[in-house]
Specification:
four-stranded antiparallel β-sheet; D-amino Acid Aminotransferase, Chain A, domain 1; 14 strands; Rossmann fold; 36% helix; Dna Ligase, domain 1
Length: 284
């Protein structure tokens, strides 16, 4: 058990972690920027360290300052919350190198699941059902060939995309020709890895997410599922749990598939496996 944990986040996220640490009898260290000097998480924590100006790049995304705060306070672990540095594999590696535990997935797991084409490859290796799709596309000509094999309509996606950025629904060869350069540009402008791939588009599918937790030793449990089908601009608006209109067989099946995938990489920490359901058949 850790004696002291630094929370590399702010606001409600940090407050929730601090309250949990208090229940466990673990000391907490908050970090804060100029804008958050009077925030609740600063006063709730046992210690608080100022890490810079209001801009996130100069504070909550400043790896050097976060690690310096941990070393200065003697924190044995860092909890990143979500957002900011929570999915930064390089930060995870630096924590380990300095003898500080990173409370989250391993850096390799971040790399494996951080890019959609590598996540698809892992799913295929472990017999997890997937929608038809491609590997990384070489160029527009390759995209046209792959789309013809998959069958329109298709989604053109950035492998590193998120938040609805870097994706386009394509209904025909002409639309693909028009969209390819635009999506490629968006991927290059917003993500470190600008690779693109294709995936079959299915209308009227349900977006279900299975919450899992792994101990890093191959033991993984499912903590239920939620329906995230109500979306606006590819962003979830409502999450409903347990997911309605699933029978027990479907519920057990999608949870088992999620467990199977995460056990294959000995996943550590909390995670989410997204499942698409249409015609009563689940596809990740």
């Amino acid at each position: 058990m850790f004696k002291k944990v630094l929370i590399a986040n702010r606001g409600a996220i940090a407050c929730r972690v601090i309250r949990s640490l208090k229940k466990l009898g673990i000391q907490s260290v908050a970090v804060y920027s100029e804008a958050d000097r009077d925030s609740l998480h600063v006063s709730l924590a046992d210690e608080a360290i100022f890490i810079g100006d209001s801009a996130a790049q100069q504070s909550y995304l400043n790896i050097e300052k976060i690690l310096a705060a941990a070393q200065h306070t003697g924190a044995e672990a860092i909890h990143p919350g979500y957002g900011f540095l929570s999915e930064n594999a390089a930060f995870c590696d630096l924590c380990e190198q300095q003898g500080i535990a990173f409370i989250g997935p391993t850096s390799q797991q971040m790399r494996d699941f951080g890019l959609k084409h590598t996540a698809r490859a892992l799913a295929i290796q472990n017999n997890v059902p997937l929608l038809p799709g491609s590997q990384l596309l070489i160029d527009l000509d390759d995209a046209l060939i792959q789309a013809d094999q998959i069958g329109y309509p298709v989604m053109l996606k950035s492998t590193a995309g998120g938040g609805g950025i870097g994706m386009r629904l394509v209904w025909s060869e002409q639309e693909l020709k028009e969209a390819y350069q635009t999506v490629s540009y968006l991927a290059q402008a917003n993500f470190k890895d600008a690779g693109l791939y294709l995936e079959k588009f299915v209308e009227n599918a349900r977006h279900i997410e299975v919450q899992i937790f792994g101990d890093g030793q191959g033991h993984v449990i499912a903590l239920g599922e939620r329906d995230c089908s109500v979306q606006r601009r590819n962003q979830k608006v409502i999450e409903e749990t347990p997911a309605p209109h699933l029978n027990e067989e479907q519920r057990r099946y999608i949870q088992q598939v999620a467990i199977q995938l995460m056990q294959s990489v000995q996943y550590r920490s909390a995670g989410t496996v997204e499942v698409g359901i249409f015609n009563r058949s689940p596809f990740n």
